[in-house]
Amino acid sequence: MKAFGASQIGLVRSVNEDAYYISSKHDVMVVADGMGGYVGGEIASRTAVNAVAYYCDQMKHSDTLSLQRAMQYANACVWSKTLIDPSLKGMGTTLTMVCVQKQHVYWGHMGDSRLYYWHDGALIQITSDHTWIQCLLAKKEITIAEAKVHPRRHVLTRAIGVDEDITPDTGDILVTPGDRMLLCTDGVTAYIADEEMATLLGTPEMDEQTIVQTLLERVYAHGAEDNVTAIVLTI
């Protein structure tokens, strides 16, 4: 397996509230996008990522239950900081992670960062956004075009650290050599269409670092109003 990740502050924000992690074996990967003000979002995302990295390092094997517990541990770590320091109350973070074990990729998710899977020429969005807008789309109360410009499009319905108890989305994917995974924050998906992601991931001449750098360059070319973080993994 080969993986590469990068995170940049963007052209507008003064703080990078995103965080990411790639294990030394490239078998655990995490992206997080913090929220909660100038300091809170940065603390939340880094606390959650560090917690997941620590938990996964202790795991004997991976499955959907172990990823759920890893994310619940991260939630407890962020939640406890808001209890210790009331000024951090309301902070939280998205968190999307994968753990590779042989031919299985186990994934966990909360928030609106995303996991994409490229296989046999097709790009599949594995995760569903936990946003107010996604609820409206599911009910067909608004169109995709309306969702892209809606003033509440970034309002989350689920996140790490906001509530004491959480139940993350989890699942697993049976993968084959050559398949690729993309984990990214909404600073990427707000600017890059799925078709463009599919083209990049489906170009075998491009390695993981080149794909990530190309994604970030294109986001910057379109204004980069948010922090930008992406990880690409090739099985």
Question: What report would you give on this structure?
Answer:
With 235 residues, the protein is an alpha+beta fold. It has one domain (1-127, 156-232): Phosphatase 2c, domain 1 (4-Layer Sandwich), CATH 3.60.40. Helix content is 35%, strand content 27%. Strands 2, 3, 4, 5, 6 and 9 form a six-stranded antiparallel beta sheet that branches. It has a five-stranded antiparallel beta sheet with strand order 1-11-10-7-8. Helix 1 packs antiparallel against helix 2 (64-84). The radius of gyration is 17 Å and the shape is globular. The N and C termini lie close together (5 Å). Residues 3-235 form the PPM-type phosphatase domain. This is Protein phosphatase.
What is the strand and helix layout of this fold?
Blueprint (H helix, E strand, L loop, with lengths): L1 E7 L9 E5 L5 E8 L1 H22 L5 H21 L7 E2 L1 E7 L2 E7 L3 E6 L2 E4 L6 H7 L5 H6 L19 E6 L5 E5 L1 H4 L4 H8 L6 H14 L6 E7 L1
Antiparallel strand pairs: 1-11, 2-3, 3-4, 3-5, 5-6, 6-9, 7-8, 7-10, 10-11
Q: Key features?
A:
single chain, 235 residues, alpha+beta, Phosphatase 2c, domain 1, six-stranded antiparallel beta sheet, five-stranded antiparallel beta sheet, 11 strands, Protein phosphatase
Total number of beta strands: 11
> Hey, roughly how much beta strand do the residues contain?
25-35%
By DSSP (H or I, 4+ residues per run), the number of helices equals: 7
SSE run: EEEHHEEEEEHHEEHHHE
Summarize the main sheet. Answer: 6 strands, antiparallel
CATH superfamily: PPM-type phosphatase domain
Domain PPM-type phosphatase: 3-235
InterPro entries: PPM-type-like_dom_sf, PPM-type_phosphatase-like_dom
Protein name: Protein phosphatase
